[in-house]
Amino acid sequence: MLDAPGGLSRALRESPPDQVAEAADRAIRSTLGATRTDVFLADYRISGLWPVLDPELPEAGFLSCQGMAQRCFSSQQPVLDGAGDGRCRLYLPLSVWGERLGVLLVEFPTAPGPATVEQAGDVAGELAVVLRAADRETDRYRRARRRERLSMAAEMQWELLPGRGVSHDAFQLAGQLEPAYTVGGDHFDWSLDGDRLTLTVLNGSGIGLSASLLTAVTVNALRNARRSGGSLTEQAELASDTVFYQHRGRRYVATVLLELDTITGRVRAVDAGSPRLLRLRGGAVDTIALEQQLPLGMFAEARYDLQEFDLAPGDRLFVVSDGVWAAAPADREAYGEKAMARAMRSTRLQPPAEAVGTVMRELHAWHADTDLRDDAVVVCLDWRGSGGRAGD
């Protein structure tokens, strides 16, 4: 048996980016004695997991794999499934720094021992890193993820995202855009630098491609200031000036900028006509009221003030756009009035990546499963405390 980590790493490095799954398949068969592998990737809506190596998998076989793969994806733990004829399928999460990409299936002729399961987990971790890198060099994996055609605006928005999740000793973070295939201007962005996590959520204005272009300008202006060492207020002011001189006040972007000290839980904030912030502490939900300032780009030379609030270990913070908070289909009360708090409380035992999906599903149900009338963003942040666990 070959050295698994070294053999796989070499095989993946030497393979073309569009052939990473095949290279992993050959290496895993040779290294671990597997009889079959496949890579399942989560779609844009995170409504299912879809095979890369065998996209024509018969429906019965696909549904059989799907249930176990979904359990692995949700729990982020290995799942063993006996096939009934001595064979055994092992499902392993494909995740990079907390971002869940999908699931690796490895089928063995007999049940694997603990050492083989551990070795396969290392293989899955290596493969996930390479898949994330290869995704920028080929369209193959993006095609596997999409269940329908993306609008041009949505294509731009998904390209602009930092990812859909990140995990750290002190926090977990996840976000989701809806409607996934036609989203226009709503967006989120984040960056971790030492003990500082910067998070921005944009409540884009307008619809379609023009909204996506406005958001792209705003996000890149914010990133430019942040990467140049600008403070939170300087990020807001540069982005505001950039948008204003492009549109002369005719277009603007409601935004909230947050900077979390991952050691203390202190949050610095700039509220530029922002999306809503809600905190779940224990079983209680409260709105974090910030003083709203001018949206980015409304006036020239706008200046912004910092505000601050604290998170306690175990706190969960949701940031939602107007498409979530103000959703009021068929003359019902706004989703944010009561339903949002109920949905938040129901996520207490879920990690953020599952929690954003729960809130989005509840939002779709609030719309009676009709299409959302507005773009919607949900971002969920758990602060564990500097010790890495709530209550430390």
TrEMBL record:
One of its GO terms (molecular function) is phosphatase activity. Keywords: Hydrolase. The keyword Cytoplasm does not apply. It holds the Pfam family SpoIIE. SMART domains: PP2C_SIG. It comes from the Bacteria. InterPro entries: Bact_Sigma-Reg (IPR052016), GAF-like_dom_sf (IPR029016), PPM-type-like_dom_sf (IPR036457), PPM-type_phosphatase-like_dom (IPR001932). Residues 168-383 form the PPM-type phosphatase domain. This is Serine phosphatase RsbU, regulator of sigma subunit. It comes from Micromonospora echinaurantiaca.
